[in-house]
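wait is this the right file?? whatever heres the structure
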């Protein structure tokens, strides 16, 4: 990503491919995010935060994107186009719908074009993340996942989901990282059907719980709210360390959120490190030279 940015800054026009189904996938990937401008945390003043109606710590695009246009390959003969990556990324970070152009070949071989303009709504409609929440019942197709272990955790948490045996009946495809890398026929079939795919790093209870936390967020706290709370916690930790506290250990978070918390510490000239394992991995912020 860094090499591509360097080449683009020299005025060379680039065409490239990246792993991911949607623009949001690139934004959530710490390595590839630089291709669409990078994501950073910004601390607003009290008046600006009040004017925007947001937390003081928000996410913003760091710089101009390396690529001005993003094309999502949705099917063999269908693509979705984001004609202005800067505007699309900014809109997604603010929780707003984006303008998308969809092109496909009809039966006569003609190219058809449909433009989806943003619709003002209080409901977030980021494509690919709704996962059939309309009826609040997820139909999962498991591939390489321990079904008994999943059902046991679901039972413990008193959740409601349906594990189906036919790919055509599913609205979410679940597999492990090792299976996804080999890209067997079932994975290719799911992608061809434009079915959302959730990849577990490993077939362990912590990873399964993280999956359930993703598709069944708590009613009181949405994913965006959780992110804001995590960033606010990091800001508060920075203030405590600067005022004399030796170190502050934050709540366990995902790898992406931990990366943002590390950036907050670095921006404030403090040291940080991740400790713990699996779902208990968290960030510790401290002054350089402090024993950790």
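ok assuming it is, sequence goes like this
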């Amino acid at each position: 990503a860094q090499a591509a940015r360097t080449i683009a800054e020299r005025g060379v026009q680039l065409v490239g491919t990246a792993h991911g189904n949607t623009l949001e996938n690139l934004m959530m990937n710490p390595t590839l995010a630089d291709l669409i401008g990078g994501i950073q945390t910004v601390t607003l003043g009290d008046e600006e935060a009040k004017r925007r109606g947001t937390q003081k710590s928000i996410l913003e695009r760091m710089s101009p994107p390396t690529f001005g246009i993003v094309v999502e390959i949705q099917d063999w003969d269908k693509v979705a186009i984001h004609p202005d990556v800067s505007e699309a990324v900014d809109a997604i970070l603010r929780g707003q719908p984006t303008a998308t152009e969809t092109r496909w070949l009809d039966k006569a071989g003609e190219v058809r074009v449909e433009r989806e303009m943003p619709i003002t709504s209080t409901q977030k409609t980021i494509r690919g993340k709704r996962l059939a929440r309309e009826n609040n019942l997820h139909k999962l197709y498991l591939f390489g996942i321990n079904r008994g272990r999943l059902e046991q955790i679901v039972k413990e948490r008193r959740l409601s989901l349906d594990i189906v045996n036919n790919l055509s009946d599913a609205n979410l495809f679940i597999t492990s990282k090792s299976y996804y890398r080999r890209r067997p026929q079932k994975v290719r079939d799911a992608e061809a059907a434009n079915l959302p795919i959730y990849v577990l790093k490993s077939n362990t209870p912590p990873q399964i719980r993280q999956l359930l936390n993703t598709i069944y967020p708590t009613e009181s706290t949405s994913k965006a709210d959780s992110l804001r709370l995590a960033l606010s916690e990091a800001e508060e930790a920075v203030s405590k360390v600067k005022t004399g506290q030796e170190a502050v250990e934050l709540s366990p978070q995902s790898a992406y959120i931990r990366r943002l918390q590390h950036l907050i510490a670095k921006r404030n000239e403090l040291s940080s490190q991740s400790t713990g394992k699996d779902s208990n991995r968290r960030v510790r912020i401290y002054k350089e030279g402090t024993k950790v």
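Confidence is low (pLDDT under 50) at residues 119-135. so i think its the right one actually
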